[in-house]
Amino acid sequence: MHEWALAEAVIAAASEIAEKEGLSEVTEVKIRVGELQQIERDILEFAFSQLKPVKFEDTRFSIEVSKAELKCRVCGHTWLFSKERLDEGTAEAIHFVPEIAHTFIKCPKCGSPDFEILAGRGVWLESIKGVKCGDG
Amino acid sequence: MVDPRTSIIDERMRGIGRIIAVSSGKGGVGKSLVAATMALTLAKEGCKVGLFDLDFTSPSTHVILGFEGVQPKEEKGIVPPVVHGIKYMSIIYYSGEHATPLRGADVSNALIELLSITRWERLDFLVIDMPPGIGDATLDLIRLIRNIEFLIVTMSSQLAFETVRKLVSLLKELKIPVIGVIENMKMNGASTIRQQTLKLGVELLGEIPYDQKVEEAIGNTNRLQNTILAQKVKRLTTRILSATAPNI
């Protein structure tokens, strides 16, 4: 349940924003999850359902997954990450620390491990919506 | 978009008494040996201690401690396994024997990831084995861990000390506590490093002579604890234990 730790981080960050914006209740939290991290959506949703602090009792957590796009710094080739090409141990290592991709994934064109993760890394808090004290 | 991970790091560090980053200006000065030996000493003294190898591209504390076949537990995050009485965390669990070629931004990302998912729970001390120099790991720890303290290791070399001077000056400027400097692999009785450390307004905590037995003790913690290095580290650890807040 490594997703639990990330869910806690999302709640902590959303709480900070809610506090700063003076929201008494958070109605929606949008999260973008990078495919590289291979987050189990069910576990993440379960963690949110269990963690909800007071302001988040009726919050809808919307989770979108973005494709992981990699670009070779040596030859410029871009390609999409595919979990299916990895063995179970490697996929799991990347799940915990996505940068481990540089250990096991090589550019399919030139074989270099020196690539950039253009998109699809990590968990991001995209937006939050809520109600301010005194709002209708 | 907001990276939520940094918001939970304070919470992850909450149960830790003191967080000591063992750092150096240059590589090869024995920083990892000092960090690992210090963690072993603290564990033997009955402290709850963690060791975090942050030298992602060249981790070595697992070789010093000499163990294999352990992995962190996945339990609402990552729970580091206990090795020789130390809660031990390293990227090696995930990279194995393979090279980990990381650029600066990747080092930073991996560091934030591990800080945000690792559950150290209650510790008296967390010893961090830093990569050498003033790079991403140093800047991130300063940015993300509010009660970080630095312990700096150098050799008896003007070249190594030149970078120590810069590291100390940066830390002082940022008001980050520096516990002191350790002169390692000392080959003669010269007091140059001592004098220069004092000039920086920092304490020279100890002088560790070059000890040939250390190389043979790598991977065997019993042997390691019988080296002169370990005896010296034990002495300076006792000093650190008895000290209150270090001077800024």
| Helix and strand sequence of chain A | HEHEEEHHEE
CATH topology of the largest domain in chain A: hypothetical protein PF0899 fold
The CATH homologous superfamily of chain B is named P-loop containing nucleotide triphosphate hydrolases
The side-by-side strand order for the widest beta sheet of chain A comes to 2-1-6
Tell me the CATH topology of chain B: Rossmann fold
Count the domains of chain A: 2
CA-based gyration radius of chain B: 17 Å
The CATH level-2 architecture of the largest domain in chain A is identified as 2-Layer Sandwich
Number of strands of chain B: 10
Straight-line N-to-C gap of chain B: 36 Å
State the oligomer. Answer: heterodimer
Main sheet: strands, sense, barrel of chain A: 3 strands, mixed
List the uncertain runs of chain A.
none
Listing every helix as H and every strand as E from the N terminus to the C terminus, the arrangement of chain B reads HEHEHEEEEHHEHEHEHEHHH
* Helix run count of chain A: 4
**What's the arrangement of strands in the largest beta sheet of chain B?**
5-6-2-7-1-8-9-10
Beta percentage of chain A is 25-35%
CATH architectural arrangement of chain B: 3-Layer(aba) Sandwich
State the CATH class of chain B. Alpha Beta
| Shape, principal axes of CA atoms of chain B | globular
Q: According to CATH, what is the class of the largest domain in chain A? A: Alpha Beta
